Amino acid sequence: MLKLLFLSTPVGPLGSGIGGGVELTLLNLGQEMSQRGHQVTIVAPESSKVDHISCKQISGTCQEMAQHNHRDTPIILPENSVLANMWDYARRVQDEYDLIVNFAFDWLPFYLTPFFATPIVHLISMGSMTDALDEIMNRVAKNYPNTIGVHSHAQAATFPFNNICRVVGNGLNLSLYNYCHTPENYLAWVGRITPEKALEDAIEAAAIVNIPLKIFGKITDEQYWENIRQNHPNAPYQYEGFFNTIELQEKLGKCQALLMTPRWVEAFGNVAIEALACGVPVIAYQRGGPAEIVQDERTGFLVEPDSISGLVDAIDHIDKIERKQCRQQAETEYSLKVLGDRFETWFYELLNK
């Protein structure tokens, strides 16, 4: 049995949706490791919602999301930083654990790595964002081999240490996702509503094919959302809101296809495997993690990045995809068992060294 301390993202409480796919990954991995008999404790910002796993909630000011940074953005910690407070707690209790697992895409945990006696592994949730963060991560990757994990090869390729990090993929609790054989007449888009996700491309494609688009996710950039509303007043879309997994899968599963339109390199794309788990084909730009998930012309379509016409053509051919194949791919490649096997192997390899 391993005693594992999970350090959450500091951008918001677990369950808030602010942390995006990191929240789902952390909770799924925590659940699977617990079921395998390991002792898991999560350290997360105050007001986090965590079921069935011990969670130490820490007060403090949340970090700004890294997506808002530029290459030369300096390292910033707000007053009474929740990130600093979380890692101060980890420092004080580290002797009680075999391994610390960092889920924060931030400079501080990497900087602190040499000062901890307990080994730390870092699961990186995004591609390269700033020069300062790349430098500290590269230092840790070289000085502490096999301690940095990424979700996809495309994500790894954005970093200078791409050849010495571990690609671990991702997974879901598939029992929470119901297979839907017969869809209704709408498309879906899921994610944080922010410029790098390019929701407007999905809206334009939906307008051209005249199929309603249902939008699910957290509005994290109010001005961006207002611009979309002003620029597309007559498009057939509806903002549905942010939902938990049970509610989301019920609505997502009934759509004809999920559209994924990222402007940036998605590290993975949890919503893609959530859709597949429901039997929903995925139409995605051939960019980043989704390009490694979608089996082109079998479980969806990969289209030229930033191509509205490519999205439209894929939507027109969506009936060629057998929804059963989508669910089968999720079961084969993205179950919690598969996820757990990868991480358990990684953790034991590191500790045995």
From TrEMBL:
<feature type="domain" description="Glycosyl transferase family 1">
    <location>
        <begin position="184"/>
        <end position="330"/>
    </location>
</feature>
<keyword id="KW-0808">Transferase</keyword>
<dbReference type="InterPro" id="IPR028098">
    <property type="entry name" value="Glyco_trans_4-like_N"/>
</dbReference>
<dbReference type="InterPro" id="IPR050194">
    <property type="entry name" value="Glycosyltransferase_grp1"/>
</dbReference>
<dbReference type="InterPro" id="IPR001296">
    <property type="entry name" value="Glyco_trans_1"/>
</dbReference>
<dbReference type="Pfam" id="PF00534">
    <property type="entry name" value="Glycos_transf_1"/>
</dbReference>
<dbReference type="GO" id="GO:0016757">
    <property type="term" value="F:glycosyltransferase activity"/>
</dbReference>
<protein>
    <submittedName>
        <fullName>Glycosyl transferase, group 1</fullName>
    </submittedName>
</protein>
<feature type="domain" description="Glycosyltransferase subfamily 4-like N-terminal">
    <location>
        <begin position="20"/>
        <end position="122"/>
    </location>
</feature>
<dbReference type="Pfam" id="PF13439">
    <property type="entry name" value="Glyco_transf_4"/>
</dbReference>
